[in-house]
Amino acid sequence: MGVNETRTRWVLGRTGATLALSALLGCAPGTADAADLSAAAAGYVVQGRVVNSAGQPVEGAKVVVKDRRYYNSDIVLHSDRNGVYRSRLPREPSSWVVSASVTRQFHGKQYTFDLEPSSTASFRASAGGVRNFTWRVTGRRPGADGRYYGGLVATNLWFENLPENVDQDNVRLTMTPVGPLIDGSKGKVVSGREPVYTDSGWAVVDVPLGRYRISATYRSATSGQVYPLQIKLTGSAAFAPQVTADFEQSGTNQRIRLEVRFA
Q: Does residue 174 sit within a domain?
């Protein structure tokens, strides 16, 4: 079995002392499989597998293994064609945490997604650790920050040509996928979902990343009448009955920003 070597630099924050270490990968890309990860964690080894929501391996995911004691001590690995990563850890009394992300090109744009970990807990180097990851295009992220793996589609309702007193949260979008989603899966129509208030204004949240053809309506809270709205991308010139839109990367999230108005 071939061995790949990656080098990382360890800096002791308190004293400024520097120790150069080598982290040895336990297998060359393409040589490991899921069965290798069925055993218990091995001492001074970190390992795991990255898959998508259908359980298929994800190649090229970036896995960051961080020593909690040291500054700038990351070991950076990438999953192989079977989704597997593995590395030896230095024989020191340290504890480690692991995170992962995947970057993909889609319709000429680059997107980066945080991956869902099998555990967010740290582990002792002497015990070793197995941390598997899943690339999810929807669902709530771990923790209490209220964020989702899916993207956000925000709408701003123009207050002109109003047929009555209106509320932004009565705008409803119909989003029809144009082709597969970014992970290759088949998308579904997202329609009629109630928006929530976010830091981008009123928005539909947790939308799987893809290219969408989007239209908008307004449902009167008093009469129940449904009004078709004109729509455009924020920053574009002309309104139309529908628009085809791609997400934009915004920090660690993805967003589409829309303007809507009554005809």
A: yes
- Residue 21 CA to residue 241 CA, distance in Å, equals 60
Task: Report the alpha-carbon distance of residue 84 to residue 30 in Å, rounded.
Answer: 8
Q: CA-to-CA distance for 203 and 198, rounded, in angstroms?
A: 7
Residue 220 maps to a domain: yes
- Chain mean position to CA 138: 9
3-state DSSP assignment of residue 30 = coil
Could you tell me if 15 and 125 lie in one domain? yes
| Positive or negative torsion for Cα 66, 250, 142, 177 | negative
β-bridge pairing 123-124 and 95-106: antiparallel
| CATH number of domain containing 125 | 2.60.40.10
One digit per residue, pLDDT tens: the chain, 263 residues? 333 334 333 333 322 332 333 333 333 333 333 434 444 678 999 999 999 999 999 999 999 999 998 888 899 999 999 999 999 999 988 999 999 999 999 999 999 999 999 999 999 999 999 999 999 999 998 875 778 999 999 999 998 888 878 889 999 999 999 999 999 999 999 999 999 999 889 999 999 999 999 999 999 988 889 999 999 999 998 999 999 999 999 887 899 999 999 98
d(CA 41, CA 96): 13
Domain region containing 23: 5-135
Helix (H) or strand (E) holding 113: strand 109-114
